[in-house]
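Encode chain A's predicted structure.
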Amino acid sequence: MQSEPPRRNPRTQLPAWFGRYLLCERVATGGMAEVYLSRKFGEHGFERFLAVKRILPGLESEEGFIAMFIDEAKIAGQLTHPNICPIHELGRVGSSHYMAMEYVWGKDLLQIINRHRALGTTMDPSMAAWIASGICQALNYAHKRKDAKGNPLNIIHRDISPQNILVDYDGQVHLIDFGIARAASRSTRTRAGVLKGKVSYMSPEQLEDGPLDQRSDLFPVGTCLWEMLCSERLFRGEGELATMEEVRSGRIPSPTLLDPRVPEELDNIVLKALVRERDNRYQEAAEMAADLNQFLNTTGQNAVGGRTLAHWMQTAFQKEYHQEQQKLEHYLALDPSTVTHSARTPEMGTHPVADESTQIFFHTSEDPPPHSNTATPRKGRSSKRSPSMPDPRVLYRLTKSVGLRKHMWAIVVASGLLVGAVLGTSLAPTSGDLIIKSFPVTGAIVHVDGVQRGKTPLKLQGISSGERRVTVHLTGYTQGAKQVSISPKKPQELIFDLIPLGQATQDPP
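Encoded structure for chain A:
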């Protein structure tokens, strides 16, 4: 039975035409752009699904955002590799810049790790190594890429994180989002003291605003691999500044100690990628990929890793897999002529073409672009920017450099209140507080999930929800261990009774 075409969404008015792309559904929104699942049409009935990424409407006249957006497309447009999501086209419809890229039918790594948590399982070490190897191969290609004249592009991604690693339902790994990548050809430059990226997935040198090289991309690959093996966040402090301290500390819990099922060979690869001093880290992505592939060879998964991952993806996400398949069929069944479009020609019939307001700046796909005005991207009028909000990551550097560490938290709280007051937004809590005490003595060292967090009495804030293992240890006393379920609803309190070792071995009277 033929699928019924999807109805138009009354809130977003989708499906809708955007140049020669039929926007079917918005699939992601970020701070700079939004991404749509789209149908693309060409000559002689040609069509395919693509992802169209366009600048948010409120930023269309911001020259800085437009320049960053164009840089991203130009950098990624020069990369052709199986593990990198390709950019096919950069253009503008009216005042809205866009890029068209491959639509990856699958899930990102964060969704995959969260699915393991929901299932109460941890990722198979071979599967984790396969995914990490694919990212290393993508980075090795990008790091060594040269332009047409043979000059190195010197690309550094700078934003390796689970959200930017996609796995399709066929078991293939894709690296995306070169939005803040550094390259020799980039027209925009990051100002001194400004951090770009996700703090939990930065290298120590990136946090310290030091010079970066390609080894800085390998540290977050190690972070992602650690999290795949342990099914929890590696760097997650009580706030952004505490998280930065954790990254800089160089204290990395061994995955094998947390989970004995992690082979020692893979444990060594993770810890080498996460060495604080980059001279002792992997020196290039190819070196790390080689060690991962050697491990996969010992497990017999190097040749079948993709099929194993594909089977897991289609099984673990079985419901979503079938729902998304039906959704694609629905959009394919949609008659384009039922959606109004401002530009049509008799030659194209019901197939849309680029209208006079569409400009295509570069085009890399196999099918030729439609006729359009080829012009240099115009500079939009700069709208008046809102006052700059204090960045806790910059405050961290300031307090570190001028010896104000004791007052750091007061500054951060003040800046957080200011941001909240201006933005008027609130986030649903996904973490809770934990209070740990020891009796009859204090000063016992506290570990949460194998990571030292302080001494009793201790209050930890912002602990991610879920089951946590807490241990306390004090020389001369028995060690205590408890499981606790963290909930955002109310603080959890643990009290450990510490017994002197000599007393613990005596028989009761």
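The CA atoms of residues 208 and 248 lie 9 Å apart.
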